[in-house]
Design goal:
Three copies of one chain form a homotrimer. Chain A is built from eight helices and no strands. Chain A is mostly helical.
Chain lengths: 222, 222, 222
C-alpha cells in the first residue's frame, strides 16, 4: 500500500507545517491586539491545532496533539518567536499568506485522507479536510474578535474544498501512475495561490434592490 | 418497545427536518452578510448539524452525520437553494420562524430521548435536548457575528427546555395511553408558536437604578 | 497511593467549587446584558462546565457532568441565585474576583492531574490544566459578546499555567514531604491573588512606531 505509506510520512509533516503556518497567523492576531506572550500562545495554539482537534473529535479518534505533543510544542515556540519578531514578520504579509497556503494544502488533504482511513464516505471526508484546514482560522477570528475568515469572500475554504474533492475523486479512480494526494495538494495550493496572486474572490450574494431594506421583508407579496 | 420503535423512525426524521430548518436560518445569515456560496454552505452546515454534533460528542456516541451523511447533504443542498432563492425566502420571515419552530420541536425531543437512551439522568437528558435545539443557532450567531440567540430574550431556549421537561416527566410516568414524545413535541411547538404569534418574552433581569453605573459597584454598602 | 486518594477527594470538590465560582461570573455577564433567567442558566452552565467539558472531550474520557450531574445542578442553582441576588453580588466585584481565583486554583491542578492520570505527557497535562481553568471564561466572553479574557492582559491564564507547571515539576520530583497538588494550588492562587491585589499585568506586545499603520506593511524592506 504505497499510498498508506506515503500518508504515514505526509500526515505528520503536513500537520506540523500547517500547525506552524496557522500558529503564525494566530500569533499575528495577538500582535495586532497588543497581547502578552500568554495571549500569543493561546491564539497560536488555538489556530495551529484547532482544526485538527475538531476533526479528531468528530471522527472519534485520539486527538493528534495528545498522542504526540510535537505540534503543540511547535505552536508554543512559534508564539514566542512571533512575539519577538512580529514587526519583521508583519512587514512580510504576502510571505505569511503564501506560508499559510503552503500549510493549508497538505493539511487539508491529510485531513481528508484521515477521514477516508477511518471509514467515512467521500462527502464526510471532504468536510473533514475543509474542517482541518479552516476551523483553526475560524476559532482564531472568533476569539481574536476579527472579521471571520468565513465572512470574507476570499477563496480559502473553496481552495480546500476543491483540493479535497480532487483527492477523493483520484483516490476512487486509483490510477496507477497518479498519486491522489499529490494532485489534491497541488489543486489546493494552485487555487489558493492564484487567489492570492490575482486577488480572486467568488461572487457574493447580492440582495436585490427591492429587498435591500431590513423593514421591507414581512409584507412583501410575491 | 413501541416507544423505541417510534424513535427509530422519529429521530432521523426530526434530525433531518431540523437540519434543513436550521440550515435555512444559517444560510439567511450568509445572505444578510453577502457571502459567497461556500459561506452559505459553512453557515448552513454549522447551524444545521452543530447542536447534534455537540450532543453526540458530549454523550460520546458516534457523530450522527459521520455515520450517515444524509443530514450533511441536506444542509449543503439547502445552502445552494437559499443562495438562489434568498430574496423569496427572506420576504417570508414569519414562515421561516415557523419552519424553524417545526424543526426545533422534534429535534429537541429526539435529543432528549438520545440522552435517556444512552443512560443519562433526567437533567442531563433535558440539557442534551436544549443543546441539540439551540447550539447550532448559537454557533451561527457567533460565526455570523449576529446578536446571539442567548442574548435575545425570545422564548426559544425556554420552549425547548419546557418540551424536554414534559417529555422526561411523561416518559418516567409511562402512562400507557400517552406517548411522551408526542407530548414533548407539542409542548415545545406550542410554547414556541405562542411566543412567535404573541411576541412573548420572559422578563429580563433589570439592574436596580442605584447599581446602574459601571463605577457604582465597589464601594456600595448593602 | 496517597496522592491518588487525595485527588479522588480533591478533584470533585475542586470541580464543584470552580463550577459555582465560574457560574457566578457567567451569570453576572447575563445580568449585565439584562437577560432572562434562561439566559442566566445558559451562561452559568457554559462558563461553569465549559472548560472541564473541553478537557474531557480532548482526553477522550466521559464528560464529568454527564457521569455525575451534580456540577450541572450547581451551575443551574447558581444561575437562579444570581438572577435573584445580582445587585448584591455585583456590588461585591472584588469578592467575586477572589471567589473566582479560589475556583481557578484547584480546578487547574485537578485538570492537570486528570491529564497525567490519563497518561498524557507533562506539556499536554499543563495545557489540560489551563484549558480547564480558562476555556469556560473564553466561551462566556464569546457568547456574552464581552472582551475575551484572552484579549485582556490580566494575569489569569499565566497563573493557571505557572501553577500547573509547579504541580507537574513537583509531581515528577515526588518529594515525600511535599504534596505537589498543594504546591500547585498555592502557586496558582498566590500568582492570581497578587495580580488581583496589585493589578499586575504582563507587558503587552507593542508595535514599533514604524510599523504602526496598517498600510505600512507590504513594501517595507528590512
Amino acid at each position: 500500500m504505497i499510498e498508506l505509506d506515503l500518508f504515514e510520512v505526509l500526515a505528520p509533516l503536513a500537520d506540523m507545517l500547517a500547525a506552524v503556518a496557522f500558529a503564525v497567523t494566530g500569533a499575528l492576531v495577538a500582535s495586532r491586539k497588543g497581547l502578552d506572550v500568554l495571549g500569543f500562545m493561546w491564539l497560536a495554539v488555538l489556530t495551529g491545532v484547532g482544526g485538527g482537534t475538531v476533526r479528531d473529535l468528530v471522527l472519534d479518534v485520539p486527538v493528534f496533539w495528545v498522542v504526540n505533543p510535537i505540534h503543540l510544542t511547535a505552536c508554543l515556540l512559534t508564539a514566542v518567536v512571533v512575539y519577538l519578531a512580529a514587526p519583521w514578520i508583519e512587514s512580510r504579509r504576502t510571505l505569511v499568506l503564501w506560508f499559510d497556503a503552503l500549510g493549508l494544502a497538505p493539511v487539508t488533504i491529510a485531513g481528508t485522507a484521515k477521514g477516508l482511513d477511518n471509514g467515512t464516505g467521500a462527502l464526510v471526508a471532504i468536510v473533514m479536510g475543509v474542517v482541518t484546514g479552516s476551523v483553526g482560522g475560524i476559532i482564531r477570528d472568533l476569539v481574536g474578535q476579527e472579521r471571520s475568515v468565513i465572512l470574507r469572500r476570499e477563496i480559502y475554504v473553496t481552495a480546500a474544498a476543491l483540493g479535497a474533492c480532487a483527492y477523493v475523486v483520484f483516490d476512487a479512480l486509483s490510477l496507477p501512475w497518479l498519486n491522489p494526494a499529490v494532485i489534491g495538494v497541488c489543486v489546493t495550493f494552485a487555487v489558493r495561490g492564484l487567489a492570492i496572486r490575482f486577488n480572486w474572490s467568488l461572487p457574493g450574494y447580492r440582495r436585490p434592490a427591492k429587498a435591500s431594506s431590513e423593514t421591507a421583508g414581512g409584507g412583501n407579496g410575491q
